[in-house]
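Hi support team,

I've been running sequence recovery on a batch of backbones for a student project. Most finish fine, but this one hangs at about 90% for roughly twenty minutes before it completes. I'm not sure whether the input is malformed or the queue is just slow. I've pasted the structure tokens below so you can try to reproduce it. Let me know if you need the job ID as well.

Thanks,
M.K.
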């Protein structure tokens, strides 16, 4: 058997040994911290909430957004490295209510590891789906109502102040108040723009059920959806399309709204099935775009959607 090497002796050896122990003592907790929850990073699942959170946090902490521009929140996934980031964050902000189907298990793992999480959709007075196919389920698409997004701003600011180390609370709350004023102004502007649409033309048909909150806030009727579900992962049957085509004809719906990040093939099929001249209009309903895509921020997305709806349904 090989004998172990001798340790250094003498004054020089002792100095080196003590120095090494000091370095390990300093490095040890830092190394461990990278693998434990409770850091100073905010991780956000969707890019819509990511944009809002960045406005609130400002330069007070790092904000990592998992969902890429033009992605589908129902199906996007994360890398192993991103999953590890989730599990050692200081705070995870997620939409909740079943929206992020591809990353829900990573959020649960983070919670199990002791990471603070905020399911925003669960705290903004969520609505049930306006769909028989999703009866009993709560609708996660709350951001289409700017008033509820105002509530979300306050919730996120509180969570950041309470859970993220090293932030200046006054700065975070000032950022939130400034942004909240912009969201409230957006809500008032949307109401003014939608008021130009005659009541009989305030009927929404979408690619899937995504505008229930907007409909409630601004007095629209939800006629139906091509995919009679709250998720893009479902598929309509022939009878679903036939029933919706009948509703489109009976309500004189002039436009079908399809998400810009999803193929509009089904909406086009429905337009043909309805037997009427129905325009298919692209909206940015569930994802922000890149910088030059027309909906790079939450505020820009909501303004673009409002103008598109007014143009399609307004009495021309």
């Amino acid at each position: 058997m090989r004998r172990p090497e001798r340790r250094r002796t003498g004054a020089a050896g002792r100095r080196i040994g003590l120095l090494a122990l000091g370095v390990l003592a300093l490095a040890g907790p830092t190394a461990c911290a990278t693998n434990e929850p409770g850091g100073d990073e905010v991780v956000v699942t969707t890019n819509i909430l990511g944009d809002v959170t960045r406005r609130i946090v400002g330069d007070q902490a790092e904000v990592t957004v998992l969902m890429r521009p033009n992605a589908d929140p129902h199906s996007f996934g994360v890398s192993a490295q991103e999953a590890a980031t989730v599990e050692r964050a200081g705070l995870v902000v997620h939409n909740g209510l079943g929206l992020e189907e591809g990353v829900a298990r990573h959020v649960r793992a983070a919670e199990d590891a002791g990471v603070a999480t905020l399911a925003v959709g669960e705290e903004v007075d969520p609505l049930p789906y306006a769909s028989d196919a999703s009866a009993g389920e709560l609708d996660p698409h709350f951001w289409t109502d700017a008033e509820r997004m105002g509530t979300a701003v306050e919730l996120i600011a509180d969570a950041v102040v309470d859970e993220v180390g090293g932030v200046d609370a006054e700065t975070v709350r000032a950022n939130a108040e400034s942004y909240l004023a912009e969201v409230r102004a957006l809500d008032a502007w949307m109401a003014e723009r939608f008021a130009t649409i005659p009541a009989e033309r305030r009927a929404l048909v979408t690619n899937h059920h995504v505008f229930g909150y907007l409909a409630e806030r601004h007095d629209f009727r939800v006629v139906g959806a091509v995919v009679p579900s709250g998720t893009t992962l479902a598929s309509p049957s022939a009878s679903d399309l036939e029933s919706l085509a009948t509703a489109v004809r009976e309500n004189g719906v002039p436009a079908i709204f399809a998400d810009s990040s999803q193929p509009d093939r089904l909406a086009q099929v429905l337009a043909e099935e309805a037997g009427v001249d129905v325009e298919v209009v692209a909206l940015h309903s569930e994802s922000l775009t890149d910088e030059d895509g027309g909906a790079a921020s939450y505020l820009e997305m909501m303004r673009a959607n409002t103008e598109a709806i007014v143009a399609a349904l307004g009495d021309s």
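--
Follow-up from support: It reproduced on our side and the slowdown came from queue contention, not your input. The domain at 41-190 is CATH 3.40.50.1980 (Rossmann fold). No action needed from you.
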